[in-house]
Amino acid sequence: SQKIEQNSEALNIQEGKTATLTCNYTNYSPAYLQWYRQDPGRGPVFLLLIRENEKEKRKERLKVTFDTTLKQSLFHITASQPADSATYLCAPMNSGYSTLTFGKGTMLLVSP
Amino acid sequence: EAQVTQNPRYLITVTGKKLTVTCSQNMNHEYMSWYRQDPGLGLRQIYYSMNVEVTDKGDVPEGYKVSRKEKRNFPLILESPSPNQTSLYFCASSRHNTEAFFGQGTRLTVV
Question: For chain B, which terminus, N or C, has the lower number of CB atoms within 10 Å?
């Protein structure tokens, strides 16, 4: 069966450091992979989409990599700030499918 | 403003009393979905729709119904709610293989 694995333990880092979150998937051949941010009690908010033929994508302080051989995506936040504290969700998407299935997410806590 | 609107935001109901949670989007998106979110289980898809009159089951469809009579609306119906349907519910919409927009959530308690 298809599985999406994100580290269930919260990631605690200090302000200014780079946070790196991992998304591993099995039994997927994703054409795309999306990352979302979710704050407690609120709906997820889209951050980045990366395609299978893109190794890396950047948006301001955010960077996503996509390794289809390792079946893994890494999500980086550089110069992290307390306001970056949230849960981050990944969602690999097979080609032709438009329904999103999410990993359980990793909580990031950035302390001042 | 582009948005997905769910109503109500909060609902407490009794077991067996039929209820409907509405979802509306103003972006002319083809795809709409319903998710429930429970502690430790993450977001799980209940139903999705790829267009008007086209709906399909997600991972946890038991106890729920949906309809897509119009492109903008995708109501979630609980014919006979039970306490195990107490959860936080989200509606989402998107175009094909693009970012999804989520509603603000509906916190449902069934007693």
Answer: N
Encode pLDDT of A7-58 as tens digits: 888 999 999 999 999 999 998 888 899 999 999 999 999 999 999 999 899 9
Nearest CA-CA partner of B75 in B30, B22, B8: B22
**C-beta atoms surrounding B93 within 10 Å:** 26
pLDDT score for A50: 95
Residues paired with A21 in a beta bridge: A75
Residues in B closer than 8 angstroms to A99, CB to CB, are 31, 33, 45, 48, 58
Q: Is the dihedral of CA A87, B45, A25, B99 positive or negative?
A: negative
Mutate to test the interface with A, among B9, B35, B97, B109 (most CBs of A within 10 A): B97
Q: Cβ contact (<8 Å) for A102 and B43?
A: yes
DSSP labels, A63-97: EEEEETTTTEEEEEESS--GGG-EEEEEEEEETT-
Confirm or reject contact between A92 and chain B (CB < 8 A): no
